[in-house]
Design brief:
This protein has 329 residues and is an alpha+beta fold. The chain is 32% helix and 24% strand. The strands form two sheets. Strands 1, 2, 3, 4, 5, 6 and 11 form a seven-stranded mixed beta sheet that branches. The protein has a four-stranded antiparallel beta sheet with strand order 8-9-7-10. The longest helix has 19 residues, at 208-226. The two termini are 25 Å apart.
């Protein structure tokens, strides 16, 4: 991964006609890495079944699960758009038919739009005569993500493809090592915050000093992860650029964030575009205790919420036997 992404393939021992895959929720941005840093969180997922069809097109057969009101037009659907980009780039003569099972709410800040396109790509890739590397799927995933967010940013699709914490630039994916004991508490209040609205909140002028401070914080977080140094991460995991502008969009955010910090969080911020809030912790027990306090803070303003507690070094998207069931690989 020290060179720009290139198409790499290996021969498939058998031509499959259908495949299923799962992609897990994610924490986009991780506070200090706007659009370029993210990690997977086990416990919520999207699952996709892809069937090879003779017709040279991409079509969506059905959408099931927690979100059913999504475009059936492939070009307007993240999963469909990703497979359309794959077909065009590879010059495939055959097409694909998809069935989506949504397990991640849209507008949640948990990578719901990204998970569908990544799971679709992983499943479709298994049907190719020469399956591509995960890195080579990255550009197609960006095409799918752009349908929902309006931009090609890899902070969600990158970690879903590789697993764990990933630095995702325009052309590269780099997995960042994280101690296995570090856990994330991710709390999703039952309110929708559309990605485009969250991005609109960032319009306006920024001071150069803000960019310098954010760059320093990102560097501290990355160095802390590589060195397994929690103190460096604690010093750096403070979003001074994006969080102040999006915080008003998340109900009771200040109290939710403080609840995480009160339970020894290395840092806490908005997950993706929100409204979910995450915290990083050195130990699972601290993350579990914090998650309940964070949920209580949302309850203070009349919002119920879902809680996920899982290692920061989360699982990559994977093939599964069926899209029925819990989708665990």
């Amino acid at each position: 991964m020290n060179a720009p992404l290139a198409v790499k393939a290996t021969m498939s021992p058998q031509r499959l006609q259908s495949a299923c895959a799962v992609a897990y929720a994610s924490v986009g941005n991780v506070g200090v890495g706007f659009d370029i840093l993210g990690h997977c969180v086990a416990g919520a997922s999207d699952r996709v079944e892809v069937r090879r069809i003779d017709t040279p097109t991409v079509r969506i057969a059905a959408i099931k699960g927690c979100v059913e009101v999504l475009p059936m037009d492939a070009a307007q659907n993240t999963a469909g758009a990703a497979l359309m980009a794959l077909r065009k780039a590879l010059g495939l003569q055959h097409g694909f038919e998809l069935t989506l099972h949504k397990g991640i709410a849209l507008g949640s800040g948990m990578g719901g739009s990204a998970a569908s396109c990544v799971a679709a790509l992983v499943a479709a890739n298994a049907l190719l005569e020469r399956p591509l590397s995960r890195e080579s799927l990255y550009g197609f995933a960006l095409e799918g993500e752009a349908v929902a967010s309006g931009g090609r940013h890899g902070d969600n699709v990158g970690p879903m493809l590789l697993g764990g914490l990933v630095l995702a630039t325009r052309d590269r994916l780099l997995r960042v090592p994280v101690p296995p004991t570090w856990h994330c508490a991710l709390v999703h209040p039952h309110v929708v915050l559309e990605t485009r609205k969250a991005r609109a909140a960032l319009a306006g002028d920024y001071a150069l000093s803000e960019f310098v401070a954010q760059s320093a914080n990102l560097a501290l977080v990355l160095a802390g992860c590589w060195q397994s140094d929690a103190d460096l991460v604690r010093e750096g995991l403070k979003d001074v650029l994006v969080e102040p502008r999006r915080a008003p969009l998340v109900p009771n955010f200040a109290r939710v964030k403080q609840a995480a910090l009160d339970h020894k969080a290395l840092g806490a911020s908005i997950s993706g575009g929100g409204p979910s809030v995450f915290g990083w912790f050195e130990h699972r027990a601290d993350a579990q205790a914090a998650a309940q306090s964070m949920r209580s803070a949302f309850n203070e303003v009349g919002l119920d919420s879902d809680v996920l507690v899982a290692p920061v070094d989360g699982p990559a998207a994977a093939l599964i036997p069926s899209i029925e069931g819990d989708g665990q690989a």
